[in-house]
Amino acid sequence: MKRPVLAFPVLAAALAGAVALSLSAGPVPVSLGQVLRALTGGDAGGPSGETAARVVLSLRLPRALLGALVGGALSSSGVAFQALLRNPLADPYILGVSGGAAVGAMTARLLLRGDSFLPLPLCAFLGAAIAASAVFLLARRRSGVSRERLILMGVIVGAFLNALIMMMVALSPPGRIPGAIYWLMGDLSLGTPGRVGMLALYVGGGVGCLFLLSRGMDLLLLGDEAAFQSGLPVEKVKTAVYLTASLLAGSVVAISGLIGFVGLIVPHGARSIVGSGHRRLLPAAFLLGGTFLIVADVLARTAGPSGELPVGAVTALSGAPFFLYLLRRDRGKP
Amino acid sequence: MRDDLLAARGVTFRYGEREVLAGVDLRVGEGEVAILLGPNGAGKSTLLKIFSGLHRPHAGEVTVLGRSPSSYGRREMARILSVAGQDPPLDFPMSVEEYVLLGRFPHHGFFGQATAQDREEVARALAMTSLEGLKTRGLGEISAGERQRAALARAIAQGAKVMLLDEPTAFLDIYHRVAFYEIVTRLSESRGVTALIASHDLSLCAEYGEKIVLLAGGKIRAVGRPGEVLTPGNIFEAFGVAAVCDRNPVTGSVRVTPVRRDRGKDRGGDAREGSGPTTPF
What we know:
heterodimer, B: alpha/beta, 2 domains, six-stranded mixed sheet, 12 helices, globular
């Protein structure tokens, strides 16, 4: 197994490229030169240049940063759930964790009127954590947790949560329904600088925690018994990983809704580049996840004939077939 | 030299209603290679899990170096005692070397980098198990026998004084079975490692084991040197199989050969050779 030295520079360059693409692509065409001038605060060169600078700085830059954070956080959360459950098919969306976060965030929105943005991610985290433990407890048998059973329980819990979400949407004040639906489909357009900054705190904290736990996640891949016998305080590490992965998924869902399959596809891609050691895998998955979601968002913004598509639709279009491929490839394994 | 590096006193353990161990007493001394024999389901793995702290006995107690396993910190315990038994993971891409390096966790912990000493121990464990040539291969790309050797290498790299090995030769060919017992003997002689091995290799155990422990029906049926334990009577009582127990003409160790049921009657005299009570057919 090769471990290319250049993996990280290449991944970082890919992310930078995706951000540049995201800043220049859209209904108002902006050249890369104009993007660069806007970012460096250089002379815009006339009124059209000033408009371009405004578009870049106030609309597209927060959106690109939000995409990087959301994609990175979902991928890191996917890496963590996969190690926690020793299941390469785990992902916050498939496990129903994102659905739990959405219910938590919507409950907060319904109960707390006005601009109650601060507690939203915390309520989403609570919803995510409850959904994750429900799925895990339902899937657990004395003999352990089979991967198929885990996914089945994720689907069932997810369906139940979806029903709750639909009820909540129906009960929302009429003016809020279109926004809520759009948010549920996965939306990066809500990236105001304040929200991006706040999400950066949650995501930075969560990813930092996971990075500190990376040796523990390496050992979790051995299975609980072997990890315990290798000196790992298994229950403590699993609890910490589960809470952190739920926090990441929850805080992201609170702001950008349900974006599926990123946490499934990206960790696989990252593993094929840097291997399974989490000290390399986590940063690689974060960079690759940001790149993937920004590119998906550019597609969502530019592919639709009239206006934007939800980015969650684009990720699901590529993710669902990928999931099938993984499921078929792994058939026959215990 | 202490004679109770591992000790069990009156250990009883149940899975639900099913009693697996019913009052087991056992002592393994420092540097000793003890082999745990017994039929499937006799409780060999369970006893190893109790020693490693994974299970707690329902009655009785076990000690490792005179202390209960639960009184140790996790990493402290793993520096004293390593376990090889479960198959390496196959769901995630991991090279043999990366896998063996995980055995060094008790030494470098969560935040430390792998040191030169860690690398050295890994290289030594890979050399001992003849896996140097495969170290960059993925665990999914090697055979079941090679994976079993990788699991042994990880336990060796852990650098513990005590090794618990749960059916470590199940997938190995005769060459690697012999090699396995030679590795354990070498570790015992050169590093003073104490090994408790759950196994089904009756004759090989007699060749390499200093102490044989025969476990059946939740109790220890016999303990002692191979010649004392591996008798037709004990083997029939534990496994329900008639066997000839004679001596290896070259090494003089006990040699156990099962007797075909349909032929044993005609030539029953063979099965009665060796020490111990008469084998009932």
